[in-house]
Specification:
The complex is a heterodimer of chains A (497) and B (323). Chain A has 497 residues and is α/β, with parallel strands linked by helices. Chain A has 17 helices and 22 strands. Chain A folds into 2 domains: 183 residues, P-loop containing nucleotide triphosphate hydrolases (Rossmann fold, 3-Layer(aba) Sandwich); 237 residues, 3-Layer(aba) Sandwich (Rossmann fold), CATH 3.40.50.300. In chain A, strands 6-7-8-3-9-10 form a 6-stranded mixed β-sheet, sandwiched between helices. A 6-stranded mixed β-sheet of chain A has the order 16-19-20-13-21-22, with helices on both faces. Chain B is mostly helical and 323 residues long. Chain B has one domain: ABC transporter involved in vitamin B12 uptake, BtuC. In chain B, 76% of the residues lie in helices and 1% in strands. Chain B has 14 helices and 2 strands. The chains are: A alpha/beta (497), B mainly alpha (323). Chains A and B meet through helix 10, helix 11 and strand 18 of A and helix 1, helix 9 and helix 10 of B. The site of adenosine-5'-triphosphate (ATP) has 21 residues of chain A, from strand 2, helix 1 and helix 14.
């Protein structure tokens, strides 16, 4: 991976505009065989766009692309695959009504002599791939039944199956826990040893130093810097990204604790949760840690009235709350940022403004009628508060970058001014600067007396932000910690046994 | 706002907004009308224009109703039967001595009940709406035949004809009703909370539910509205003809649905406007009129309708397709 070897991929002067946005401005990029290149930058900097040009989803307005020294054009995803490029998109693309094996081999199923799909071979090859990504699931399982992290690993398996020369991973770790991230990194190292080049997009600084050889920083659509990971520091990278120092990521001020705002007693669901109990006071941030699949999201969904409960009581401010559907939860002043923004939170074809007001329509209406001025003001307020990068309030949410979409989800639930706010992976895919802003907002909300439940796969975030931490394992509460003094190791030990 | 922003908003608007889609089909309507005016100058006579408008108002009213169901990503093909049953019900009630207003109200209630049945089948039995309303289409049509024993209902008081044949200031009443329905539904869809939630439901049902919306009740409401509108359309038609036929509205659901689709609504839900549906109905009406004025054989009319549906939707797709 020294500069003497010829680059596998070279992009020269690549530009791309969308209506109202210059997403990429004369970007140059080289990727060498057998190297891991971390591509970083703020939300909306153009990372995904640059990679989608390589995968044939977007066409560049100008620029040139060379693969192994030869100029190539990549007008569509198929030609990009043929050229040896494989990509894992930021927004998962699994088809929920197909099995894992079918998802991996869609469009290129192995064909038997009789002209039909060779199911056995497909199954065998899928099995081998799943073993490689350490996913102990039946290849016939419907993908719709998998958790977000499991779907992510299926996408990784799929990317491996192409035997590509260049694999692009757009924020693959944003929905993975530490253990799964480690598995992924093992895979990356093996690929690297085989001479495969990997472009790795992430917002987690630690990962850069764990896995990357070089770092390329995009800023406002321009290539701001490229550096060797071993000669650089986190602070250098961040300042190249945002042009300023940002300091401590976790800004949790002490807030006075009030009465118990939400208490859950003996919650069980059909076959996932067993006797889950916890409480959170107003002004308090209660963290939930555990492995993916431990049942944290299921608890939150059941409390919010999305999934049916088999038994258990929910008390809001000391009184029994009858929450049967989501509307009931809203009336009790509960808000919920779900873990999957694309499927559970956003109306992708609607505008930024309409998404932000959807859960708070009562607040911007007079009687039956929406007051459009108040609606716009609400949206404007949150666009500037959360620094959502969008050309206008009328932009459709599907055209925003992943991190900016996540900000819209958070705005949507803050707009409703809940007294109890449940956050399931709220900072997934959000850049460091914005992450700090959101942590600060959480801390502010707590100080104003909001009770916050925070589910996060990032242990430093849970430890940094929570007053207390509940650890879950296989659908049960294993125990809890006080924030002060607890280490990642202690939590992990409880979470795995 | 600086000029750069304005340009941005304009191009965003052109690709994203439903208004741009409406404008595109309005252009198609104007082109068609101009061509027709040249080929058959009689088209422009006020009496012809008014009768054309009167003739498509029933399609428009039913289309406006079913467009709400289409907005949720569902479909209602029982509206033709509901249209028939409403005409028959109102005629029979008036024959038995009811006066006009209560009879029409009862007819619309019948339509609402049919819609309620559709909604319950879709929401609680989880039938695909296509199947549920296919069944209801037959059931409701069956009720028409049973009630009338297959004979047309006639001999109502003269007031029966008022809705379909009456005029106000020289303009046929159905046109007023069409405009009234359009205004009410446009306001409902674009300005009310419920309307906004219907759009959201059509865009992403799960996310809408997690936003605290009772999506089941909302879906049922949409089917009820479609039923009520189809019923009123059926009353307009029966009153215009002066006789209520138990077979009235056979195939009418396709005209109404076509006007919605030509009008730029997406069958997948979440996209569409009332104005678009109105223009869609007008395109169908002008086309019918053209085929009559140019004395095209009626067998050809159906074929041409099909071609127009496909072309109008294709043109709109072309506008949106750009990477
Ligand atoms: N299809 C599109 N239509 C219009 N604008 C787009 C589209 N895709 C991306 N953009 C805009 O281009 C810019 C760059 O987006 P991109 O998705 O590449 O950002 P990113 O660096 O991947 O951010 P993130 O870290 O949030 O994923 C953003 O301002 C975004 O709003
Ligand atoms: Mg991105």
């Amino acid at each position: 991976m020294s500069e003497q070897t010829r680059p596998l991929l070279e992009m020269r002067g690549v530009s791309k505009s969308f209506p109202g946005v210059k997403a990429l401005d004369r970007v140059d990029l080289q990727v060498y065989p057998g190297e891991v290149l971390a591509l970083v930058g703020e939300n909306g900097a153009g990372k995904s766009t640059l990679m989608k040009i390589l995968s044939g989803v977007h066409r560049m307005d100008e620029g040139e692309i060379y693969l192994e020294g030869k100029a190539v054009s990549l007008p569509d995803p198929l030609s990009s695959q043929k050229a040896g490029i494989s990509i894992i998109y930021q927004e998962l693309n699994t088809l929920n009504n197909l099995s894992i094996a079918e998802n991996i081999f869609i469009g290129r199923e192995p064909i038997a002599k009789n002209g039909l799909v060779d199911r056995q071979r497909q199954h065998r090859e899928a099995r081998a791939l799943l073993d490689e990504v350490k996913l102990p699931l039946d290849t016939q399982t419907l993908t719709g039944k998998l958790s977000t992290a499991q779907k992510q690993m299926v996408e990784v398996a799929k990317a491996l199956s192409f035997n590509a020369k260049l694999i692009i991973m757009d924020e693959p770790t944003s929905s993975l826990t530490n253990a799964e991230t480690r598995t992924l990194f093992d895979i990356v190292r093996r690929l690297k040893a085989r001479g495969v080049a990997i472009v790795f997009i992430t917002h987690r600084m630690v990962e850069i130093f764990q896995i990357a050889d070089r770092v390329a920083v995009l800023r406002d659509g321009q290539m701001a810097a490229t550096m060797h990971a071993r000669d650089t520091t986190e602070a250098d990278i961040i300042s190249a990204m945002v042009g300023r120092e940002i300091g401590d990521l976790y800004v949790k001020e002490v807030a006075p604790l009030g009465e118990v705002a939400l208490e859950v007693q003996g919650l069980s669901t059909k076959n996932r949760l067993h006797d889950v109990s916890f409480y959170v006071r107003s002004g308090e941030i209660l963290g939930f840690a555990g492995l993916v699949g431990a049942g944290r999201s299921e608890v939150m969904r059941a409390v919010f009235g999305i999934d049916p409960r088999q038994s258990g009581t929910i008390l809001v401010r000391g009184k029994k709350a009858a929450i049967r559907k989501t509307g009931d939860a809203l009336r009790y002043g509960i808000g919920f940022v779900p873990e999957d923004r694309k499927e559970q939170a956003l109306i992708l074809d609607m505008t930024v403004k309409k998404n932000m007001s959807l859960a708070a329509l009562d607040r911007v209406s007079r009687g039956w009628f929406i007051d459009r001025l108040r609606e716009s003001r609400l949206a404007e307020k949150f666009v500037s508060l959360l620094r959502v990068r969008t050309p206008s309030l009328e932009q459709r949410v599907k055209n925003l970058s992943g991190g900016n979409q996540q900000k819209v989800v958070i705005a949507k639930w803050m707009a409703n001014e809940p007294l109890i706010l449940i956050l399931d992976e709220p900072t997934r895919g959000i850049d460091v600067g914005a992450k700090k802003e959101i942590h600060k907002l959480m801390s502010d909300l707590a100080r104003q007396g909001v009770a916050i439940v925070l589910v996060s796969s990032e242990l430093p975030e849970v430890i940094g932000m929570s007053d207390r931490i509940v650890v879950m394992h296989e659908g049960r509460v294993k125990g809890s910690f006080d924030r002060r003094g607890v280490t990642q190791e202690e939590i992990m030990q409880m979470a795995v046994s | 706002m600086n000029p750069q922003d304005k340009k941005t908003n304009l191009s965003l608007w052109y690709r994203n907004s439903s208004a741009a889609s409406t404008l595109t089909i309005l252009l198609i309507l104007l082109l068609m009308s101009t061509a027709l005016a040249i080929a058959a100058p009689a088209f422009l006579k006020a009496s012809n224009l008014l009768s054309t408008a009167r003739n498509f108002s029933a399609i428009a009213v039913a289309g406006i109703g079913v467009s709400v169901v289409i907005l949720t990503g569902n479909i209602d093909i029982s509206i033709g039967s509901i249209y028939g049953l409403a005409g028959v019900s109102v005629a029979m009630l008036m024959k038995s001595g009811w006066s006009l207003v209560p009879a029409v109200a009862a007819g619309m209630a019948v339509g609402g009940l049919c819609g309620l049945a559709n909604g319950l089948l879709v929401v609680y039995l989880r039938l695909p709406s296509y199947i549920a309303t296919l069944g209801m289409m037959q059931i409701v049509r069956g009720v028409c035949y049973i009630l009338t024993q297959g004979y047309p209902v006639s001999g109502m008081a003269d007031s029966f004809k008022w809705i379909g044949q009456g005029e106000l200031m020289g303009v046929p009443l159905p046109i007023y009703f069409m405009v009234l329905f359009a205004l009410v539904f446009a306001v409902f869809r674009n300005r009310t909370k419920t309307g906004r939630r219907i759009f959201a439901l059509g865009g992403n049902e799960e996310a809408t539910r997690i936003s605290g919306v009772n999506t089941k009740a909302l879906k049922i409401l949409c089917f009820v509205l479609a039923g009520v509108c189809a019923a009123f359309a059926g009353v307009i038609n029966a009153s215009k003809v002066g006789v209520a036929q138990p077979t009235a509205g056979n195939g009418f659901e396709m005209d109404a649905i076509a006007s919605v689709i030509i009008g730029g609504s997406s069958m997948g839900g979440g996209v569409g406007t009332v104005t678009g549906t109105l223009i869609g109905a007008a395109i169908m009406g002008v086309l019918r009129n053209a085929l009559v004025l140019l004395s095209v054989e009626s067998y050809w009319q159906t074929l041409v309708m099909g071609v127009v549906i496909i072309s109008a939707v294709t043109i709109d797709q072309l506008r949106k397709a750009r990477r």
